[in-house]
């Protein structure tokens, strides 16, 4: 979840901070949009979703042309589209579909009807990165609407640094005596010596011993009391 | 590297704040209802017997296909709003549906099975008159488009134009009807009012004029709706003045006169208000129309007539026929007549069109609530049954835009409330408490405590606790029963009887007001329509304002809503007072108002029944209070000096503030004039009355506090320049104090244009506009701060504020146009705010307000990092994870309504437009309830594991001790 979001946001920032100017390409003719009448033109193109037939998605998709005034176009059953009645100007053409994601394209139409398509760049609006016209809109797949739930798995648990810190010493404690041969009397003596050296104050009671003592007394106390209770009960009964 | 780490911290913060949806949450607490709008044209797909498709085109510029079994939308195509997308005509032939839209601008053909476009052609300019299919030799190949000045013929297969001919004398002649009877000729009928009729016949192949005839008709004004072509090309016209029918053969070679047939000669009784309407039928465009036709004589009076060789013969007279229609199946044509049966039911009968005889066993009776208005339109699908008798299904449209689908014998299969496609305004009202909850509430009432003694109170307490226990047991039992049944059988049915507030007040009643004047009560968790009420006297184009005068909190007083309906032309208003839970009209009589009302305001003042006081200011600046009991008036007099209100006159560019006087008159105290030559006022917005602000300031990186400027009387006024030139146009934002009229701040965005969407809340205003220079949408945010010290921390008074606030502003690029803007709201205002942005694609983006913070630094510093400020980036990202409605898009969002719930973390959202979508959002995640993915299994297994481990280790320790003792 996290790495994904970082990358996408980084992309945006990259665009923002290092918008590489590609030079202002002069307006050259690509094709002349059929002038319908007066100065109304037609934006044409085709939308493609890889491996999906247009039949399955065109009914939920629309073509939005946004600019000085907004226009709406519909997709044909083969995935192509033509938005009629568009006056000259600069527009952002976008295919909206809840099921598939398409990148918008900026289309400029001169007053004579010359068209060109370029990448949308809202920060450097005059930058020109040419795209083919008639438009070729290729879907980048279905949009990601949902975030994944954080699931609990054994690997997550084991890879946790805290757990690792706990498990490693444990392994050492368990495995080390096996590696070192303790039956060897010399070795044992050596170890005892080192242990004595480690323990600076032999008078200090061992914690574990202390604990077992504490619990055992409690336990015996309990059992004793229960016996007592039983006795007293017996007594009473008498 | 350090910067990188910081980035990660920021991003982590963002991810935490974003209101995204988990996949398993889809459809859990959200729902969408899709509508098409008021139907203008409706056809049954009659290609096959088993077809279950309906094709409709609506006033909302929508073309759709409905499933006739259940009323669901199979596909839907939404065109532009307004006259540019208006569907002029809609014709269906086989697989193809033809539309002409935008006043004859675009001709489109649609594939009806999948809803894609076959082809689209641009037509020449000229206002659209009529269109029709043209067939030759039993096959339909062309479509003819008649415009004011020209007629054109297009191929049905690809939309190419076959020929176009301009019409003669189009300045004087109104051409209205195009007719073709399958004979290779196309006739255009035009009329010069009160003079003559012209018939021009064209050759189908090359568009040559075959002949042109002009016939004198001094009485004729228009061909629609009093004329129709019947039989082998005979024009029948009804003339109300002379009470007669005229007939004329269109394909006659020589000059002729219209034949007059007096209606009296047909033994027809005529009422005075005779507005003739002739209805004929042409089953196939490649053949002649039928010889039978209906003539409407009165509002409920129709007659079926037959045109013979030389005379008109009446076949049957229908005295009580509300609606009539024809339907054809195979060779048979039937006449369908719908008549009222009693107050609440209508009956439909079939009659043979040839003879006028009633067909046996074809009566259908269906019930219809009379409050929904009369049926307006009838669309019939007839089919031949196995025994060769005629069966049929009917689509009925009523005055309240509802579609009712009826099947024989009188079963209403489905109802679509298409009025909901045009929701104008809405409110969310808390649901009432259940009986037991109400009992508990009553126990602690003031009166009870005084009446009963200590013992009584204790007893009452015990009994109420018992009741609670009882209801809890019942609840457990119900849960147990539900758990035993398979999941599919458990229905979450909500009825008006079982309505009760839930634990967290998440389920509410949505009161929706539609443009047609129909009110709906929709329960918010599943979207069930619980009540509907049609206001029949509402004029189209009226504006509505809905206020909640009394909430559900004042048991036993019922909640009360008031709908203010303002007539568009006269400005007069009517009040509709009703109970929002049950939809019933209240017994309270609203005040009668004889003058146009300029402004209405709801005061926090309450009368003895806990109803808030509504003040209505008329055009003489007099004030009417509702309710206006003595006590209310007294309270008003006391409070008068602190009641201020403002009026906006955008025509004169004037904003004026008034104060209420003790005698319920008003006095002008300030006036701000914004000259209309330069700019005009587009919108004025105050803050929401139910908004709470939790924190008075922001803690900065250096531990000082920046106090917010929280002026509840602040108005945000948006202006747009009158000069629309891209270089000189601008958008202005004025912040004006509504009490004193002082302009607190003004901001101007140069080279900008509307439409401006804005939200005004807390101490900030966010607005969006179109940058004409860079051709992009931009957001701008204004935040107001008092500074590091508060002038008066206990109370705010507009009259005593010597210091002007510090204003911070920042602007951002938004990579899309927007259709709506609203902010989330929560109960106490602790949760961080998000902006809900409706996008033109239908998605609703939940944008954290953090992104629109004017204190975002260009260069991040240690302090800004500590404050969690995101470094400034010019572009605001749109991420599909932030769409709160995932793929459930809302077409043409007209409004987003937000309401707080009982949970601080949760905000209820309703987006309405063509569709209605309801969901919940958690701007700061669900911090006050356990997440629904809370892992109960893990926690309990760990807990049990630990308990077992202690038990075992205890046992082991005992054994060890014992062993040691033995040693």
Automatic annotation (TrEMBL), chain A:
<feature type="transmembrane region" description="Helical">
    <location>
        <begin position="162"/>
        <end position="180"/>
    </location>
</feature>
<keyword id="KW-0472">Membrane</keyword>
<dbReference type="InterPro" id="IPR019008">
    <property type="entry name" value="Beta_sandwich_EMC7"/>
</dbReference>
<comment type="subunit">
    <text>Component of the ER membrane protein complex (EMC).</text>
</comment>
<feature type="compositionally biased region" description="Low complexity">
    <location>
        <begin position="218"/>
        <end position="238"/>
    </location>
</feature>
<keyword id="KW-1133">Transmembrane helix</keyword>
<dbReference type="InterPro" id="IPR039163">
    <property type="entry name" value="EMC7"/>
</dbReference>
<feature type="domain" description="ER membrane protein complex subunit 7 beta-sandwich">
    <location>
        <begin position="53"/>
        <end position="165"/>
    </location>
</feature>
<keyword id="KW-0812">Transmembrane</keyword>
<dbReference type="Pfam" id="PF09430">
    <property type="entry name" value="EMC7_beta-sandw"/>
</dbReference>
<feature type="signal peptide">
    <location>
        <begin position="1"/>
        <end position="25"/>
    </location>
</feature>
<feature type="region of interest" description="Disordered">
    <location>
        <begin position="215"/>
        <end position="238"/>
    </location>
</feature>
<protein>
    <recommendedName>
        <fullName>Endoplasmic reticulum membrane protein complex subunit 7</fullName>
    </recommendedName>
</protein>
<comment type="similarity">
    <text>Belongs to the EMC7 family.</text>
</comment>
<keyword id="KW-0732">Signal</keyword>
């Amino acid at each position: 979840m996290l790495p994904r979001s970082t990358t996408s946001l980084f992309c945006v920032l990259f665009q923002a901070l290092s918008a590489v100017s590609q030079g202002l390409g002069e307006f050259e003719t690509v094709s002349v949009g059929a002038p319908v009448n007066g100065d109304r033109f037609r934006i044409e193109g085709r939308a493609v979703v890889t491996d999906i037939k247009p039949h399955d998605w065109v009914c939920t998709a629309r073509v939005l042309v946004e600019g000085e005034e907004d226009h709406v176009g519909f997709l044909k059953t083969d995935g192509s589209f033509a938005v009629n009645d568009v006056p000259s100007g600069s527009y952002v053409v976008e295919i909206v579909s809840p099921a598939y994601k398409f990148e918008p394209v900026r289309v400029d139409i001169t007053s004579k009807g010359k068209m060109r398509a370029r990448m949308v760049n809202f920060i450097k609006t005059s930058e020109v990165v040419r795209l083919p016209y008639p438009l070729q809109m290729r879907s980048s797949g279905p949009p990601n609407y949902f975030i994944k739930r954080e699931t609990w798995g054994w690997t997550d648990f084991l890879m946790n640094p805290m757990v690792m810190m706990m498990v490693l010493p444990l392994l050492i404690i368990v495995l080390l005596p096996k590696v070192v041969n303790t039956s060897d009397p010399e070795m044992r003596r050596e170890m005892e010596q080192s242990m004595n050296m480690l323990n600076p104050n032999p008078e200090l009671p061992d914690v574990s011993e202390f604990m077992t003592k504490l619990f055992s007394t409690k336990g015996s106390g309990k059992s004793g009391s229960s016996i007592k209770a039983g006795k007293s009960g017996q007594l009473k009964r008498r | 590297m350090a910067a990188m780490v910081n980035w990660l911290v920021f991003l982590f913060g963002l991810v935490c704040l974003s209101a995204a949806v988990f996949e398993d949450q889809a459809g859990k607490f959200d729902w969408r209802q899709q509508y098409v709008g008021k139907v203008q044209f409706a056809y049954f797909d009659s290609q096959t017997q088993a077809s279950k498709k309906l094709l409709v085109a609506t006033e909302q510029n929508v073309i759709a296909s409905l499933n006739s079994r259940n009323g669901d939308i199979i596909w839907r195509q939404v065109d532009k709003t307004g006259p540019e997308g208006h569907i002029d005509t809609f014709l269906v032939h086989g697989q193809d549906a033809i539309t002409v839209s935008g006043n004859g601008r675009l001709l489109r053909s649609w594939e009806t099975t999948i809803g894609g476009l076959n082809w689209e052609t641009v037509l020449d300019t000229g206002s659209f008159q009529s269109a029709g299919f043209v067939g030759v030799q039993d096959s339909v190949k062309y479509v003819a488009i008649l415009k004011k000045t020209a007629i054109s013929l297009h191929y049905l297969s690809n939309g190419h134009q076959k020929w176009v001919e301009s019409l003669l004398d189009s300045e004087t002649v109104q051409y209205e009807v195009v007719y073709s009877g399958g004979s290779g000729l196309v006739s255009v009928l035009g009329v010069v009012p009160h003079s003559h009729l012209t018939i021009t016949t064209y050759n189908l192949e090359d568009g040559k004029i075959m002949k042109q005839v002009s016939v004198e008709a001094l009485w004729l004004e228009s061909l629609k709706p009093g004329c129709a072509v019947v039989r082998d090309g005979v024009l029948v016209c009804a003339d109300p003045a002379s009470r007669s029918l005229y007939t004329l053969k269109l394909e006659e070679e020589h000059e002729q006169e219209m034949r007059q047939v007096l209606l009296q000669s047909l033994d027809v009784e005529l009422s005075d208000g005779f507005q003739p309407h002739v209805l004929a039928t042409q089953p196939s465009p490649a053949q002649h129309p039928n010889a039978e036709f209906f003539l409407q004589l009165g509002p409920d009076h129709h007659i079926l007539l037959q045109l013979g060789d030389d005379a008109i013969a009446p076949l049957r007279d229908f005295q009580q026929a509300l609606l009539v229609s024809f339907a054809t199946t195979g060779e048979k044509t039937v006449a369908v007549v719908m008549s009222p049966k009693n107050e609440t039911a209508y009956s439909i009968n079939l009659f043979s069109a040839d003879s006028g005889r009633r067909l046996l066993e074809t009566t259908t009776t269906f019930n219809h609530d009379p409050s929904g208005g009369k049926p307006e339109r009838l669309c019939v699908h007839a089919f031949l049954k196995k025994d060769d008798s005629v069966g049929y299904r009917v689509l009925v449209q009523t005055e309240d835009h509802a579609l009712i689908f009826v099947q024989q014998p009188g079963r209403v299969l489905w109802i679509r409330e298409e009025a909901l496609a045009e929701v104008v305004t809405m409110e969310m009202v808390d649901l009432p408490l259940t009986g037991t909850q109400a009992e508990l509430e009553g126990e602690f009432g003031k009166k009870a405590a005084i009446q009963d003694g200590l013992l009584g109170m204790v007893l009452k307490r015990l009994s109420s606790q018992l009741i609670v226990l009882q209801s809890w047991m019942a609840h457990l039992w119900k849960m147990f029963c539900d758990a035993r049944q398979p999941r599919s059988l458990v229905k979450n049915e909500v009825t008006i009887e079982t309505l009760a507030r839930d634990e967290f007040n998440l389920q509410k009643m949505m009161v929706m007001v539609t443009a047609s004047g129909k009110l709906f009560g929709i329960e918010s968790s599943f979207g069930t329509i619980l009540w509907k009420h049609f206001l029949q006297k509402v004029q189209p184009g009226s504006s509505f304002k809905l206020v909640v005068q009394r909430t559900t909190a004042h048991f036993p007083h019922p909640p009360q809503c008031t709908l203010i309906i303002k007539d568009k032309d006269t400005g007069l208003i009517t009040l509709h007072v009703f109970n929002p839970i049950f939809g019933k009209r209240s017994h309270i009589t609203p005040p009668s108002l004889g003058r146009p009302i300029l402004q209405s305001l709801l005061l926090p003042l309450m009368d003895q029944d806990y109803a808030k006081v509504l003040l209505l200011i008329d055009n003489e600046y007099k004030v009417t209070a509702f309710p206006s009991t003595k006590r209310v008036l007294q309270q008003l007099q006391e409070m008068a000096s602190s009641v201020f209100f403002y009026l906006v006159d955008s025509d004169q560019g004037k904003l004026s503030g008034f104060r209420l006087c003790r005698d319920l008159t008003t006095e002008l105290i300030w006036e701000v004039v914004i000259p209309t030559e330069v700019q005009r006022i587009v919108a004025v917005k105050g803050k929401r009355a139910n908004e709470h602000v939790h924190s008075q300031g922001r803690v900065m990186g250096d531990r000082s506090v920046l106090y917010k400027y929280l002026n509840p009387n602040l108005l945000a006024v948006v202006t747009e320049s009158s000069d629309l030139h891209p270089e000189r146009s601008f958008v202005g934002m004025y912040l004006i104090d509504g009490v004193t009229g002082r302009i607190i701040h003004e901001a101007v965005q140069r080279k900008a244009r509307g439409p401006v969407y804005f939200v005004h809340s807390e101490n900030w205003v966010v607005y969006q506009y179109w940058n004409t220079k860079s051709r992009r949408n931009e957001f701008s945010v204004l935040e107001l701060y008092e500074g590091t010290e508060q002038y008066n921390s206990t109370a705010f008074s507009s009259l005593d504020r010597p210091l002007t606030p510090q204003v911070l502003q920042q602007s951002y690029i938004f990579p899309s146009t927007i259709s709506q803007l609203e902010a989330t709201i929560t109960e106490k205002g602790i949760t961080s705010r998000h902006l809900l942005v409706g996008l033109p694609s239908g998605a609703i983006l939940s944008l954290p307000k953090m992104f629109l913070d004017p204190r975002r630094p260009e260069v991040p510093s240690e302090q800004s990092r500590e404050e969690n400020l995101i470094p400034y980036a010019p572009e605001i990202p749109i991420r599909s994870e932030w769409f709160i409605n995932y793929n459930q898009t809302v077409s043409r969002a007209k409004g987003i309504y937000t309401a707080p719930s009982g949970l601080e973390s949760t905000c209820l959202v309703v987006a309405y437009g063509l569709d209605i979508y309801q969901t919940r959002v958690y701007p700061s995640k669900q911090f006050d309830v356990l997440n629904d993915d809370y892992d109960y299994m893990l926690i309990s297994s760990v807990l049990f594991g630990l308990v077992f481990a202690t038990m075992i280790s205890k046992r082991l320790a005992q054994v060890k001790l014992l062993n040691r003792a033995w040693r």
